[in-house]
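User: What would this chain look like folded?
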Amino acid sequence: MLNSRRSLLLALALLPGVAAGLVLVPSSAAFAQTTPSADAPPADSNFPDQPDENKPETTLKVNVNLVSLYFTVRDKHNGLIPTLAKSDCTVFEDKQPQNIKNFAAETDLPLTLGLLIDTSGSQQRVLPLEQQSADSFIKDVIRKKDEAFVVSFDVGVNLEQDFTSNTSQLERAIDHTEINTAAGGGSMGVPGIGQGPVPTHGAPKGTVLYDAVAQVSNDKIRSETGRKALILLTDGEDEGSVTKPNEAVEAAQKANAIIYVIMIADRPFYAGGGFGLGYTGDSQMQKLASETGGRVINVGNNGKKLEDAFAQIEEELRTQYLLSYTPTNLKLDGSYRKLDISCKGDGLKVQARKGYYALGAE
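Assistant: Here's the prediction, encoded as structure tokens.
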């Protein structure tokens, strides 16, 4: 459960069967379900709200499953391609071709964004750079119909700011983050004196990165609708997570969240200071991002590269395609289905999630 520095976070009542980057609707001969419009904004908070009579809604009768996927396409020069048509792209599920029903370039759909900031001791020298660039990014990317939240992680996972479209509140939360010098993982002190909780057993925790991804995916965004993305500002090192890397990937996939990892690392921290640590964060971050349709951007400790990384992510989030299809395999058995999307053109590269879980109503 996320720990808020301002108030206790109550349990989130997950909404069953809701998906965003990927949508599965249970089959029925005559099944009516009220679903949010594609242009409806995300929910204002974790908690179920009273019905909003002004919120756009449509009543949809369905008798099939529907899979919807967000993706981006780049040319051989790495430029984003915004002008493709339905006939240009194909999708395979478990190597079986699928018939694309709907296809659109989505440049302005509502966005649910989570910003996860590594505040462990290894980030001491780069946190100010992260805060400055993240503030600018929030100002540029968040619009009235978008929502974002801020989480920090070190020995614990801390909710700094819940869902809001108020950029001033988000900036204050970002600027409020501070290094937890009471954790393990290369920092000094006693666990529990900083932001994180006192470990109840085992070795002191240092950076619970995978726990943060899993908790945010399960408790914060799985029940949200629309486009969803998580941005991790971290050196990629994890020490003390209960969650395994594959479990973090699975949680993000089931929440239908695209993960971008901005690798910002104070490399001298690992090489010097007598800590005896090596830098090993790259490979798992590559998997975490690529499996969910995002990517890793390595900026070292360069402020200009960090600003460019945020600019690239903003451009991608506003230059996405959305396609949907009825899978040939209609079983809602919870199994993992591999996906492959390709588009015609000279050297075109598709950036999309690698698969999904065929989950029915819970």
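The CA atoms of residues 240 and 317 lie 32 Å apart. If you want, I can go into more detail on any region.
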